[in-house]
Structure formats: C-alpha cells, structure tokens
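Cross-check.
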Amino acid sequence: MGLYGFVVEPHWVSLREIHLTISGLDAEFEGFSILHLSDLHGRVGVFSKQSVQNALQSCDMIALTGDLYAPSLDRRRLARIIDTWDRDKLYYVSGNHDYRQGKLDTSPWEPDATLLDNRAVCLTRHDSELWIAGIPDLVKGSPKLDKVLRSVPTGPPAILLSHRPDGWLLPGTERFQLVLSGHTHGGQVRIPGFGAVFRHNHVPDRFVSGLYKRPGHPILITSRGLGMSELPVRFMARPEILHIILHTTKERRKETAGGVSVE
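Predicted model, tokenized:
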C-alpha cells in the first residue's frame, strides 16, 4: 500500500455514471440526472476539473449528503465553491462531521432552503411529480422519518437522502424507490480477499459502497465520497463523484460499473 495509499489513490477521483430504472417514474422525468456528492471533508481541488464543472452545470439535481469540512482545512475555501453552485437544484442533508457541540454548524456556508433535514420537496414537470426527502445524521442529528413520510403523498416516486447508509434500514423507507448515502468512504482501506477493514454501517453483506438491492426495499446507493477523515489514506476505495441518471423503463436502462476518471 505504502506511498500509493497516501499519495496516489486519495487524489485519483472517479466520476462514475449509474443508470437506474425507477418504478413509477413518468416520461417527463426520463433521463433526470443527479450528481451525488458526499463526504467532501474540505476537498476543493476536484471542483476545478472541467469534467466536474460540466457535470455540476448539466445535471438536474445536486445531492450533497453530508460531512462538508475537515478540521485541518480552511472552511472558507469549500464554502466559496459551494456558493457558486445552483441553489435551485442543490439539496443537502447533514452528516456527523457537520455538528459542533450538538448543533448543526455549516458556517461560513449557509444551506438555507437547500437543507433537507426532516423535510421533503416536490419537483414537478408538467403534471408529473418526483419527491426528494432527507433526514439528518442518524447519530448527531435528530431524524424524524415519520414526519417526512407524512408530507410525501402515496403514488409519485420518491428519493431519500441520508448521510449514513443505515437510513435504508429505518421502518418506512419502503415508501422510497431510492436512497442516496455516504459516510463509509467505501471502507477507505480494503484488503483483497477480505474487503473493508471498517464498514461504518449495519447494512447486510459487508456493504460499504455502490448499489445494494433487496426485495421490498428501495435501491441503496452509497458513495465512497471525496475526502478522508482521521486516517489520511485510501486503498482500493477511490474517491468518487456519482452521476445517477433515472429512466422510466428497463428498455432504456443501462448500469455501468466503470466511469470516467478525473485525473
């Protein structure tokens, strides 16, 4: 692992595309694209890459699933960058590192209407609806999924943002078609033949990142995120940005495990 895990892989970001068929999605939302960002931990360099800038501008929605800063990095750098993003399509839920002394603290960036903790919003195209809901960090925050569910009507497809993949395990998540999460960093260090040393979640099957399915549950997609916390190393768990494209029928569906690397 050595030098590679400390110098190379932490900066070798993957911009990965995932195509999903979403049950109940109307034709008006065919091709709806979500740029999923998680666990930035103060990382800013990747946002100067043209491919990332293009993705931020062209996507229909930016899902930011928590853990914005790192203690050792200037918060103002990342705050200035996030402020350049289109707030009309940005939705943020808090992660455990976004709390100080028990309170949410994202300063100097102010999420305002982008904050989706314990609430839901309806996106409309003509007469069609797509609901986007969120809950705060399951440990540092006060998630109230029951409150969220009361505001989401039966019928239209719905997506839940949860910093931790464990949000997928909460009673009531079967109402959603898709859950987007982060927190795990993909294990950050994975050993061949064993997998992640630390999972940081309780989803079955030693799940730490990627796409997870079980009958009767929504699809779970967990990002490996961009930054690092505590141990400044990555091995077999490259940082990533996910570009998720929604489709209405299986005929239009294509799932890709690869992607375009951001050098």
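The longest strand covers residues 13-21. Residues 253-263 have pLDDT under 50 and may be disordered. Passed to J.P. for a second look.
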